[in-house]
Amino acid sequence: MATRPLALITGASSGIGAELALTFADRGYDLLLLARNRDRLERVAAEAEKRGAAVETFIADLATPQGLASAAERAANGDVDLLVSNAGNAGYAPLKDVPATDVDGLWRLNATAPVTLAHAVLPSLLAKGEGGIVTVASLLAFSAGMRSLTSANATAPLTMPPRTLYAAAKSATVAFTRTLAGELAGTGVSATVVCPGRVATEWSAGRNQNGADVMSAQDVATATAVAVERGDTVCVPGLAHPELLEQLLEVESALVRDGNRAVLADRYQTRP
Predict the structure, then answer these.
(1) 78 close to 124: Cβ distance less than 8 angstroms
(2) Quick one: which H or E segment has residue 203?
């Protein structure tokens, strides 16, 4: 009997993470599911088992140093074929209103954990010459300069949530994954960052569950699985015009190229 590959999925007890678990179970993976809530995680595990997956559950809080360290130790066992770092917390608030005691935990969960877990699984993936690393970021990673946005399918502008810490963490995740993908070229190991827009889940107290122009968690999971199978580096589940990603790369390249000069630009030569 052929051995099924093993996918480690974090934040797997609800929302996008739960749908990722079921989607990859349907696609022939066994699962290592990680979350904080044991009862909810066990329910997802039971459903995945009905779909033919062997499932191991792992309880850890990736926002804590101890939880992340224990998860990284398990990830480094050498049996993981696909890492899906999905766990996150919006923590939507102006930076001045984020409690000082929450800053480290939010950053650790949203930005540090995907890097730490990728570092843990990478040696075994490279030794096998196959597998993948997936990070779940957000379209808000690209929203730093925006105060509102008129969506292609919405009649009224969407007000951006207060998101300084969250957008910074997800921007870091996007940059990390895209750069890692370049490092892994030719190794047989892929890196994919998934950037959904608004999704109908319990995320951020369910603020999007009943909204218009909101994608289902199941569709995000499907897009993720297809992106992994195709080896895409950036997956935006609702993007109808993927050439925009090529334009983004062109603008980034032009900015780095044109800004890398030894001479101070004219606009900084004089005081305003």
Answers:
(1) yes
(2) helix 203-206
The whole-number pLDDT of residue 272 equals 84
For 111, the token pair is: 């930005």
Exactly one of 29, 92, 166, 268 is catalytic; name it.
166
Q: Is 166 among the residues known to form the active site? A: yes
Q: For the whole model, what pTM was predicted?
A: 0.94
Q: Which residues contact 230 (CB under 8 A, 6 or more apart)?
A: none
* Token pair belonging to 210: 């009943």
Contact 35, 50 (CB under 8 A): no
* Nearest CA among 240, 21, 253 for reference residue 136: 21
- The stretch 137-142 carries a mean pLDDT of 97
Mean pLDDT of the chain: 94
Q: Give the CA distances from residue 54 to residues 5, 32, 80, in Å, rounded to whole numbers and listed in that order.
A: 10, 9, 13
Residue written as tokens 């399918």? 153
Q: For residue 88, which of 32, 135, 41 has the smallest C-alpha distance?
A: 135
Amino acid at 180: L
Q: What letter does residue 268 receive in the DSSP assignment?
A: G
245 neighbors 187 (Cβ within 8 angstroms):
no
Q: How many helices (H) and strands (E) does the chain have?
A: 9, 9
Nearest CA to 136 out of 234, 229, 207, 202 is that of 234
